[in-house]
Write a structure and sequence with these properties.
Number of helices: 20
Strand content: 5-15%
Shape: elongated
Low-confidence stretches: none
Largest sheet: 7 strands, mixed
Strand order of the largest sheet: 2-3-1-4-5-9-8
């Protein structure tokens, strides 16, 4: 049973700055709840009331360029990092002056070296990727990733811990354990030992109670220092959630909430000390801030995407034919990309040429990466079988000044990356209302006709075509494939590349009698094949391996005098 930690005048004096900031955050969130009850806040509000001291005490030991990755309960994290009360009020109230332009709302906040997202555990692999980028760059900066005890049920967390422990990434996971996941006590959802869940991955484990400020300060400092030395850590903090999960949906017995409140030093100090003047001062600051925000213009509606390109496109003679296979051309394109930047990183399952000393060469299930890991040994890496975390790590790398390409062994397995791609990488630009450079690509062998069976032969790229902010492409054998990949890798936004398995062996060596082959002047070009001397009877639109099948149809139909474009 937890007991209150009494704070004498010396402790209160020592932490007067931290107390003031934590109290201001509490008053800020109490004001948000008032605004919600008055109908001035749409959506929802997840407050940090009772847990404010955790980021306040922790962040005093951080450097300005240490990253913070937060979750749905993010207000205290954001304010402790930025001190931008005005911008957060404006954001939650839907104003253009908000930190995410009034689009992100309560859960989706963005600032320099700060991001939050409401998806449980979703930011854990992104933090690992940011940590990997720091390690590659030789930076002393670290990534802090906040999770709650409810997140201990999410599989992507353990994939991320495995990455962090395996590669010794400078990531500090902060587990704010308030004992309840929305409305369900986590004592009913967690089996085994919480500490063992982290220790088993090689993550150094620290524990403290948020009510004990002296211990929280000292242990936070120690955890940050060890993480900065290059060892991943977890700071497990027993926390006090004094309010509901969001708004007013608290189903806990009032008697239990009263007992938890007795553990809260801020409530104790406010109740037993003369804080009236301080509370009045901070309340006036907050009220004045809100009144100013209310005079700001509301944000426009959510971003609109127009998938239609309305620029003139010109076609010219296609490049000269080549007897180099698409597979080899892709490898050349990857090599050019890795050559062009020391910040380029390729990761995937079984992509290395040799997994370890004495092992025979491999270089990818379809041999596309070949010997690239021998040429770029620190930047072409085998990963665990963890597709979701691979995608998140690639995203984190791209966010932190690197370029990343993630190879998924079979296109069928890309269903496992949907959350990281759709809810994270592709939403960061729109939901934060700002331009974010995110050069991350996904490459994967797609399609059938190889006899691999029901779970290895699908063509499911159509699931990705409709995702906003995602460029979806599929190479064909008539392209200059290496240049095509150079163009893809130059994009500063997420890209999905569906490589049909049967395209790998094709070349552009053969011509088609009576037809000319043209390519558009776009950076990601379109190929047009059309008859030279007569009008086409109809047109076939296709992509990837479909172009090879269309060419077969052209040859077959020409026997009957039918022309096709």
């Amino acid at each position: 049973m937890r007991k209150p930690f009494p704070h004498d005048s010396a402790v209160i004096e020592k932490y007067s700055r931290e107390f003031r900031l934590a109290l201001k955050i509490r008053l800020f969130e109490q004001k948000l709840l008032q605004l919600f009850n008055a109908g001035e806040v749409a959506g929802t509000v997840h407050t940090s009331i009772g847990q404010e001291i955790i980021p306040v005490m922790l962040y005093k030991h951080l450097e300005s360029e240490d990253w913070i990755l937060s979750n749905h309960r993010c207000h205290a994290h954001f304010l402790a990092k930025t001190d931008n009360f005005y911008g957060l009020f404006a954001e939650v109230l839907g104003r253009k002056t908000g930190v995410s332009s009034g689009i992100g709302g309560s859960q989706h906040l963005h600032a320099d070296f700060f991001m939050s997202n409401g998806i449980q555990g979703g930011m854990t692999p992104v933090a690992a990727g940011i940590g990997l980028a720091n390690k590659l760059k030789g930076s002393s900066n670290i990534a802090i990733c906040h999770i709650g005890d409810g997140t201990l049920g999410e599989g992507v967390l353990y994939e991320s811990l495995n990455f962090s422990g395996l590669w010794q990434l400078p990531v500090l996971y902060v587990l704010e354990d308030n004992g309840i996941s929305q409305s369900t006590p986590t004592s009913t959802t967690i089996s085994g030992s919480i500490s063992d869940r982290f220790i088993s991955f090689g993550i150094q484990y620290f524990y403290c109670d948020s009510s004990d400020w002296v211990a929280l300060d000292a242990i936070s400092k120690q955890a940050v220092e060890i993480t900065r030395s290059g060892q991943p850590c977890v700071l497990h903090v027993k926390a006090n959630r004094l309010m509901s999960h969001s708004k007013g949906d608290d189903n806990r017995p009032p008697s239990l909430v009263r007992e938890i409140e007795k553990l809260d030093p801020i409530s104790s100090i406010v109740g037993s000390s003369d804080c009236a003047d301080l509370i009045k001062e901070l309340t006036q600051e907050i009220d004045g801030c809100v009144e100013q925000v209310k005079r700001d213009p509301f944000t426009d509606s959510s971003p609109k995407w127009d998938p239609i390109t309305r620029v003139p496109t010109f076609f010219m003679k296609a490049i000269s034919s080549s007897d180099v296979s698409v597979r080899d051309q892709i490898r050349i394109g990857l090599s050019k990309w890795l050559d062009s930047s020391s910040a380029a990183f390729l990761l995937g399952e079984d992509v290395q040429y040799k997994a370890a000393d004495g092992y025979l060469p491999y270089g990818g299930a379809f041999k596309v990466t070949g010997n690239l890991s021998e040429l770029y040994p620190e930047r072409v890496k085998n990963t665990p079988i963890s597709e979701a975390a691979m995608m998140g790590v690639g995203t984190g790398l791209a966010l932190n000044g690197c370029q990343s390409s993630v190879e998924i062994m079979f296109g069928d397995f890309t269903t496992l990356i949907i959350d990281q791609l759709l809810q994270h990488a592709c939403k960061f630009k729109s939901m934060y209302g700002t331009q974010i450079s995110l050069p991350v690509s996904v490459r994967t062998p797609m399609g059938g006709r190889r006899g691999y069976g029901a779970t290895h032969s699908q063509s499911i790229e159509r699931m990705f075509v409709g995702i906003p902010e995602l460029t979806t492409v599929s190479p064909n054998h008539r392209l200059n494939v290496s240049d095509f990949y150079s163009s893809v890798f130059s994009l500063q936004s997420p890209t999905f590349i569906a490589e049909h398995k049967l395209v790998y062996n094709l070349t552009s060596g053969s011509q088609i009698d009576g037809y000319e082959i043209l390519t558009s002047d776009e950076s990601l070009p379109t190929i047009v094949i059309r008859p030279i001397s007569q009008k086409a009877s109809f047109t076939i639109f296709t992509y990837g391996y479909g172009l090879f099948l269309a060419e077969k149809a052209i040859n077959d139909l020409s026997k009957y005098g039918v022309s096709v474009s």
